[in-house]
Amino acid sequence: MILILRALGLGDLATAVPALRALRVRYPDERLVLLAPRWLAPLVDLIGGIDELVDTADLSHLRWHGPAPDLAVNLHGRGPESHRLLVGTRPRRLFAFANRAAGHHDGPSWRADEHEVRRWCRLLDWHGVPTDPTDLGLRRPAPGRTPTGVTVLHPGSKIPGKRWPVERFAALGRQLAGTGHEIVITGDATEQPLARRVAQLAGLPGHTVRAGRTDLRHLAGLVAHARLLVSGDTGIAHLATAYGTPSVVLFGPHSPAQWGPPPERTWHRSLGADGGGDCPDRDGAGPHPTLAAINVDQVLVAVAEVERMVRTTGAAAA
Length: 318
Known about the structure:
Helix content: 25-40%
Strand content: 5-15%
Order of helices and strands: EHHEHEEHEHEHEHHEHEHEHH
Distance between the termini: 32 Å
Radius of gyration: 20 Å
């Protein structure tokens, strides 16, 4: 049995897909058990290859009662807390980054400026598990009653500094709707007021707001069959990458060099923090300065670019 720790959010799990797939290929007969938040179960199903999900939303409260694993894999962080948690399961082997504080020296060194996808692939490559960092795709849910061909605007984020101003999202929605885009505004239940405000300022009907009305699987289906996504640097952007849905992602304070879509995929655009590393955090509830500097015209230009690229190449990605 192989125990894998990735107890974070939607984007975090999506960026670990190539590493998870590599473990499945390398150990086809082993049972893969993923330690991650239970609410991510629909995404785990869309990844495939994971035999069991154990709810692990808080590292400090995990109590592993199963057998000692043959292998434990830390896809969560650099340690030491996550290293110690996995060592507590008594694994025969541990794949993790070297961490002196945790007493773990058998692993590669951590690189702070590394892209999140390549970070976990490099860890497994170091331990002799071949990986493919481009293997980011998810199973595509059948559309069913999910609207297709829509333009998804996602104004929310659990981190206030990652939220582009609501007035600009509204102006963007108004202009896109005026050129024939069918707008849908998404978010979780806590972001309903934000989504409604965007619709109201944009002059869009109430039914465009789907915030709080879609679970994770339906959200994946919506993005999978969408025309376009515009969002901040948050989990839904990784769904667009997974499904090859054209996207414009607005960054700040973190850099697309670490969290953005693959730069070779020309149907995605990243705007904002263009440097190789993260921008300094600062106090305050408003958007980070690098995000606040992005104007509506810049986003409209990026939208036109990705749509032109799709027309030129014939399709984004399967």
